[in-house]
Amino acid sequence: QVQLVESGGGLVQAGGSLRLSCAASGRTFSSYAMGWFRQAPGKEREFVATVSRNGGYTSYADSVKGRFTISRDNAKNTVYLRMNSLKPEDTAVYYCAAKGTSYSAYVFREAVSFGSWGQGTQVTVSS
């Protein structure tokens, strides 16, 4: 199982940008598809973005498509979420998640598919 630690959250004005990072422990990071999810107060955790093991395939929630970009650096055991044009409705705790898979080009969007989770990082967007 991989250990995940998120960083990069904070307070930003609407229209601003942030880049979240998620550092993974272990030497098998490239065996995991990675995802970002978020949970706002009083709401259920929701899918944000996911990237395949090889980084070649991505998928996004409609609410962030065109504004957020997920990427990974397997040499650094890190996955990123670049967030541009932030809106107050993007305010949430953002979680990084990992899913072990033998399929290098698959992406996964369901939270139940992911077996490892980070502790989360708070993103607050002020209007």
Q: Top keywords for this entry?
A:
11 strands; mainly beta; four-stranded antiparallel sheet; 127 residues; seven-stranded mixed sheet
Structure description:
It is a single chain. With 127 residues, this protein is mainly β. Helix content is 0%, strand content 48%. It has no helices and eleven strands. The chain has strands at residues 4-7, 10-13, 18-24, 32-39, 46-51, 58-60, 68-73, 78-83, 92-100, 116-117, 121-126. Strands 2, 4, 5, 6, 9, 10 and 11 form a seven-stranded mixed sheet that branches. Strands 1-3-8-7 form a four-stranded antiparallel sheet, with no helix packed on it. The model has no long low-confidence stretch (mean pLDDT 96).
What is the 3D shape?
globular
Largest sheet: 7 strands, mixed
Content of β-strand: over 45%
Number of helices: 0
Query: What is the multimeric organization of the chains shown?
Result: single chain
SSE topology string: EEEEEEEEEEE
CA-based gyration radius: 13 Å
* Residue runs with pLDDT of under 50 for 5 or more positions: none
Helix content: under 10%
Alpha-beta classification: mainly beta
Mean of the pLDDT scores?
96
